[in-house]
Design brief:
By secondary structure, the chain is an alpha/beta fold. The protein has helices at residues 2-32, 36-43, 69-81, 95-100, 115-118, 160-166, 180-188, 199-208, 234-249, 252-261; strands at 45-50, 53-54, 58-60, 66-67, 84-89, 106-112, 122-130, 132-137, 152-156, 173-177, 194-198, 213-219, 223-229. It folds into 2 domains: 36-129 and 224-261, Periplasmic binding protein-like II (D-Maltodextrin-Binding Protein, domain 2, 3-Layer(aba) Sandwich); 132-219, D-Maltodextrin-Binding Protein, domain 2 (3-Layer(aba) Sandwich), CATH 3.40.190.10. 43% of the residues lie in helices and 26% in strands. α2 (36-43) packs across α9 (234-249). Residues 45-264 form the Solute-binding protein family 3/N-terminal domain.
């Protein structure tokens, strides 16, 4: 009887131990699976990854302060979520990897929604219907894509502008720049013959430095731009989409469009 009782007691203790382990493991699993939206709200901050050299979307003004369409929109989105906006500057070429590693909560950096990027991250939006254009120095004989044979092209490294430039047949070279501001500089001094860039960016520079650049009428691509989020962050993605829809509906994005582009892109 003592042996039987001992065996039964051992069995009960073993089952209790496994039950305890099961509860502990379950609790650990629940802790590990965090609510991405709640995490942002608990921290009180929405961290946004961006490249700070892409006017008029995001750039630094004469006071070295971050300004631009994406900056203003990011602040409005953070306000909708009831938190503060915190920009995190990152080279665009590595911005997706930085998002996936948890350096920030989302990307708002004029990022085109492509099939390739959708394999890596999810998108909120689009919030801008962009596309790649050709911009040349004023007085250039280049009239369209066909005239780029044998020419030196330029684009921002890691951008869809770089992809579009690489697809142009017959060009002599495609120079790639970490910052689009550097590409515009080289175009202005004749170091490159043409720049492939987002339409709103080209339009901003053409207006800002009137007489320096010329935008060609031919468009190379149509590219909707969105907000990048990690695939597992569904709660945050849904909240940002709701906030973005509200900003469109209440006219906030229209006001920002007129402020930075000179016209309403949402009409």
């Amino acid at each position: 009887m003592k042996k039987v009782s001992a065996i039964i007691l051992t069995a009960i203790m073993t089952m209790s131990l496994f039950a305890g382990c099961s509860k502990t493991n379950s609790g650990t699993s629940t802790t590990q699976k965090t609510d991405s939206l709640q995490k942002v709200k608990d921290s009180g901050v929405l961290k946004i990854g961006l490249d700070d050299s892409y006017p008029p979307m995001e750039f630094r003004d004469e006071k070295n302060e971050l300004v631009g369409f994406d900056i203003d929109m990011g602040k409005e989105l953070a306000k909708k979520l009831g938190v503060k906006y915190e920009p995190v500057t990152t080279d665009f070429n590595g911005i997706v990897l930085a998002l996936k590693s948890g350096k920030f909560d989302a990307i708002i950096a004029a990022m085109s929604i492509t099939d390739e990027r959708k394999k890596e991250i999810d998108f909120v939006g689009p919030y801008v219907d962009g596309g790649q254009i050709i911009i040349v120095k004023n007085g250039s004989a280049i009239q369209g894509k066909a005239d780029l044979k044998g020419k030196i092209l330029s684009a921002q490294l890691g951008s869809t502008g770089e992809q579009a430039a690489n697809k142009i047949e017959g060009s002599k070279e495609v120079k790639k720049y970490d910052k689009v501001t550097e590409a515009f500089h080289d175009l202005s001094i004749g170091r490159v013959d043409a720049l492939i860039v987002d339409g709103q960016v080209g339009g901003y520079y053409a207006k800002k430095e009137a007489g320096t650049y010329k935008i060609l009428t031919e468009k190379l691509t149509k590219e909707p731009e969105g907000i990048g989020v990690k695939k597992e962050n569904k709660e945050l993605k849904d909240a940002l989409q709701k906030a973005l829809d509200e900003l469109k509906k209440d006219g906030t994005l229209t006001k920002l469009s007129i402020k930075w582009f000179g016209y309403d892109i949402y009409k």
